Amino acid sequence: AVCGHGCKYGECMGPNKCKCFPGFTGKTCNQDLNECGLKPRPCEHRCMNTYGSYKCYCLNGYMLMPDGTCATSRTCAMVNCQYGCEEVKGEVQCLCPSGGLQLGPNKRTCIDIDECSSGQALCSYNRRCVNTFGSYYCKCQLGYELKYISGHYDCVDVNECVTNTHRCNLHAECLNTEGSFKCKCKQGYRGSGFDC
After folding, report:
1. What CATH number is given to the structural domain containing 10?
2. Are strands 91-94 and 152-157 parallel, antiparallel or unpaired?
3. Which PROSITE patterns match (predicted)?
4. Same domain, residue pair 3 and 27
5. Given 3-state DSSP classes, what are the helix, strand and coil percentages for the chain, each rounded to the nearest 5?
6. pTM, whole model, 2 decimals?
């Protein structure tokens, strides 16, 4: 089976036919599936879509059960959690629907963890981290573009000299570099390469 455009989060099953991993959709399995929009809904009360997955949480006064349903809890109602709670050994703890969120100082509301600035994010050298509420993703660095090469997606250098996206002077030569480009004035001219 050959999939010309590849299957980003899935596997190739037939000529240009991808079978997506759970949580992903699209012709090349490159789009996040919003499970919260599915019928029947996976969560009884509230649903938060995350990249490749989802999280359930309950309205105040309810406790999240392992199957995604919400059970009435007098103790949860008293604590007044933003995203529902759980009881551990008789003690009530508020929950956050994602690992990228943490309980705030009041121990009831959830605040975002900036994985990009805290160093928790893992992005390869040619990708930059973009923080989102409750998570993050890795985007190609400027001067790189996402391409499907030999079986997987990677950020590859954009040759600005070939794509004509450089700003070199008419009397300058464009030299491609990794992630960028340089301009050098032609013989008989002098200057920065942007001005000759």
Report:
1. 2.10.25
2. unpaired
3. ASX_HYDROXYL, EGF_2, EGF_3, EGF_CA
4. yes
5. 10, 40, 50
6. 0.49
